[in-house]
Design goal:
Elements: E1 9-12, E2 16-22, E3 39-43, H1 45-54, E4 60-66, H2 71-81, E5 84-91, E6 97-103, E7 109-114, H3 123-127, E8 136-139, H4 145-157, E9 161-164, H5 174-177, E10 182-183, H6 187-194, H7 201-212, E11 218-222, E12 228-232, E13 236-239, H8 252-265, H9 270-284, H10 297-310
Parallel strand pairs: 1-4, 1-8, 2-6, 4-5, 8-9, 9-10, 10-11
Antiparallel strand pairs: 2-3, 6-7, 11-12, 12-13
Helix pairs in contact: 1-8, 6-7, 8-9
Length: 311
Amino acid sequence: MADMLKHDVIVVGSLNADLVVKSPRFPQPGETISGEDLQIIPGGKGANQAVAAARQGVAVAMVGRVGSDSFGPFLVGNLKSNQVDTSHVIVDDSATGTAIIVVDANGQNSIVLSPGANGMVSPADVDSASFLNSKLLLLQLEIPTPTVLHAAQKAREHGLTVILNPAPAKTLPAELLANVDILIPNESELSLLAGLPVNDVDSAELAAKEILKQGVKTVIVTLGSKGALLVNASQTTQVDTYKVNVVDTTAAGDAFIGGFASAMLSGKSLSDSVRYGCACGALATTKFGAQPSLPTKAEVDTFIIHRSSSQ
């Protein structure tokens, strides 16, 4: 079944139920500590990026799988409420993907992923969706790598721009990188892919240039509080981010990617799109949880205007 609806962005990726508990600190092995009430929050890098882009007013379709448990309808319903097309989210007879997340007093998180149905997302799932009339494909690595590769190849055939967020970090086939237009890693993901240490802006630039040799057109390294570094054949540009009071860093990278993609679609330059993505990422860290923290276009526009006038 190929849908004839027009989607600017297609996301092929994961949907997770995030089981989140705040605690004063991370427990030591064998130690039990008391935390706050458990919260069940919609997450998964794929679904997060879909919602992040949709909240910026972009037409988004999600391709992925949920399980046949109670988490499945919860995640699909949340995507629908954010205007994401879920007609290509398949209900699998396994468990829905889950993430067990502990957030400490400083807003840092520690995560254990259980892939569940995300591990069953197949090339055939990708082929169920029409890529006609779409402009961007967003990919991550919480589904099987062969499926990610197939999606990238199909997108290339249809003229879409392929954006890969190589998270969680793993080594990738050369064939996949050769089909990526824009790679958006963080420092540790970049280090693994380039086989080089990345601990500051200079080392990030060297590692990014190593990735360009593998066929990727543009590398955008997210540097947390240091913003982002944009590297391609024609420029190396460090883009500062906005200073905010950090509550929870969960999904800040996903907010960045959704914002960056929406800005590119609106015709902004690469560096301006990165700057807009930084605003989205910064705003996301000011709220608790994954998808609940993803900002709307109105919130980002207000934030940028307010920050510009106060500087």
